[in-house]
Amino acid sequence: MSVQKDGQEPGKLRVVMAQLDFLVGDIPGNTQKVIEATRRAEQEHQADLVVFPELCLTGYPPEDLLLRPSMDVRVADALETLRGEHLGPAIIVGAPIREGALLYNAAVAIEQGNITGRYFKRFPPNYQVFDEKRYFANGVDTLVMDIKGVPVGITICEDIWSEGPVEDAAAAGARLVVNLNASPYDIDKQVRRKALVERKAFENRVSIVYVNLIGGQDELVFDGGSVVYDHSGVLAAEAPQFSEGLYPVDFVCEHHCQPIPQPAIAEPSLEENVYKALVLGVRDYVNKNGFKSVVLGLSGGIDSAVTLAIAADALGADRVRAVMMPFRYTSGMSIEDAEAEAVALGVQYDVFSIEPMYDAFMETLAAPFEGTKPDTTEENLQARLRGVLLMSLSNKFGSLVLTTGNKSEMAVGYSTLYGDMAGGFDVLKDVPKTLVFRLAWYRNSVSQVIPERVITRPPSAELAPDQKDEDSLPGYDVLDQILNLYVERDLSADAIVAQGFDRADVDRVVRLVDINEYKRRQAPIGVRITERGFGKDRRYPITNGWKSGK
After folding, report:
1. pTM of this prediction?
2. Are 311 and 291 within 8 A, CB to CB?
3. What are the catalytic residues (predicted)?
4. Which of 86, 76, 85, 130 is nearest to 106 (CA)?
5. For 133, which of 87, 216, 264, 500 is 20 to 30 Å away at the CA?
6. 189 labeled part of a ligand binding site
7. Is 70 known to sit in a ligand binding site?
8. Is 121 annotated in the active site?
9. Catalytic one among 33, 56, 111, 121?
10. pLDDT digits over 173-215, tens only?
11. How many domains does the chain have?
């Protein structure tokens, strides 16, 4: 429907994109954040319209909080609070709205104390990390409303990826379309978003304001990166990724609603982009869950070095504790490098040998182990003793334990259950090993905090004499390619071999991925940076008889 006022000439419109971080479930706090942001947008930017992200009043994704009986009451109270503020600019907020027996993912427009429009998302997504169809019905209507004489169409997130909503808004007379988003980050996501919005603006001859959520929510990170494209598909304005703020854009609305172009922002490197995503994910997980500090095991290897740098950058050195737990197989080089990293970053650093504890355990186990040869049992005991130490420090001081396993290790089970997997948050869980190396080089380009030999020497768990990761696994350059094809692209073993990989390597890697699902189910969550992370993205049965091959 269209509610443009008859005979009113379109003119100028200042839209503020409220690229903000909301806390899931904190409806009163989120409502207050909307109020404060709107007042700032009016005072600092003289906003006519402030657009907030998808489901900003509940935070995204609220998941089964939407099934709570009091959700409708709390949202209604929030909307009544917003109405009662009689805010100067018009605002568009995201909220779950029930109509009859059905719940909708909605955008609500409020002007001068009145709800002037409601739009129900037409295409709730149900793939990858999204399961909106569990909660929301499909909307059917188009909304184009008058805001300061400008016909503005409203859509929500997935609507812009589908055919129909933008097209219908343009056909109903919209000269500007706003799209409320909670679009989670992955490595190539911003490129895909911009290409999509460019195409939709050009094909429909409307300017589009794409406002995205920012912040970490469990394993998801929302990166912002809000954009504005004009009716000819030209990028006019872009908010930086991973930067919370209010971003104003001026429109001159005559035959078209033309945004006044702003200077282009610098394009970040892939490594910088991923690093910022990991920093934001750690910061929000720790802070939103009320942890005072974090603690992690520092081994002298590259994974723990990168994890330590991310933690210090996310939280500040005073909230990070690093613990070196050497054993007889720990090299002097590892001990030196771990201390150098801790000193460079200024974090609290402790050294606790696990040798006495190991000897005590082995004495206790001497009788049942009599007549057996040492194997991975003794190796895993070392990792489990370290896990006990870290969890004890966590309990005593209220610190969250950060684990340091990367995606390559998680995929093939190169980790110890209740050992190095013991903890609350795995920073590198979705980061392939080859990318860990690149992140280390990137972080050192900012300031030198990781000794170069940590990056260049062969990786080792140091659980046995002269142990190297590649003794048990294909080289990481090969391993990560196979894992990408199998885990993220769903190619079969035969299809991967057909791309030129060794059959023995492929069969071995595929088998390791399949049999270690039970470990991953018990692993801590971690920041998702790829299109197919272990968690909500990839849900495979632990018990199954599927055979690899075709």
Report:
1. 0.93
2. no
3. 54 (proton acceptor), 121 (for glutaminase activity), 157 (nucleophile)
4. 76
5. 216
6. yes
7. no
8. yes
9. 121
10. 999 999 999 999 999 999 999 999 999 999 999 999 999 999 9
11. 2
